């Protein structure tokens, strides 16, 4: 019971960040919820993975098929809320609906396909895009995955991210 109350309090506290329109802190707070699964892939891990994939690719296709934005990423955070309580998921969905395109944030894609929802939001600082957030939700099974990509991307990189999500 204490864990449930703490989780609800944590969601409430992080939802207050939404009103201040700080998605990065909100996403970081979500990772602290009980049963949330969090994985950080930093620059060194990204480079090592890409180098290993290139080294094991006998066809030579990986260097030519790797989207350019991958080279500009500093880190990727993945948060899976699937194992969290129904209350946590409902609060998350409510907060996600309240995110507005303001204060440097812009929704790039908002797709609903049956029970599946995907929303991609970019944070812009002039022509530089330091963060992209991907929210993937299966409403039928209440499976929620959040991806935060951090780097120094630009508009053409955003087109690559959207193209990758549509495949």
Keywords:
single chain; 167 residues; alpha+beta; 6-stranded antiparallel sheet; 43% helix
Looking at the structure, what is the overall shape?
globular
Radius of gyration: 17 Å
Regions with little confidence, pLDDT below 50 for 5+ residues: 12-20
How many distinct folded domains?
1
Beta content comes to 25-35%
Q: Could you explain how this protein is built, in words?
A:
This protein is α+β, with helices and mostly antiparallel strands and 167 residues long. The protein has one domain. It has seven helices and six strands. A six-stranded antiparallel β-sheet has the order 1-2-6-5-4-3. A hairpin with a 4-residue loop joins strand 5 and strand 6. Helix 1 packs antiparallel against helix 2 and helix 1 runs parallel beside helix 6. It is globular and about 45 Å long. The termini are far apart. Keywords: Signal. InterPro entries: DUF4252 (IPR025348).
What would a concise description of this structure say?
Keywords: Signal. The protein has 167 residues and is an alpha+beta fold.
Strand and helix map with partners:
Blueprint: H1 2-19, H2 23-30, E1 37-42, H3 43-56, H4 61-65, H5 69-72, E2 73-80, H6 86-97, E3 105-113, E4 116-125, E5 128-138, E6 143-153, H7 155-165
Antiparallel strand pairs: 1-2, 2-6, 3-4, 4-5, 5-6
Helix pairs in contact: 1-2, 1-6
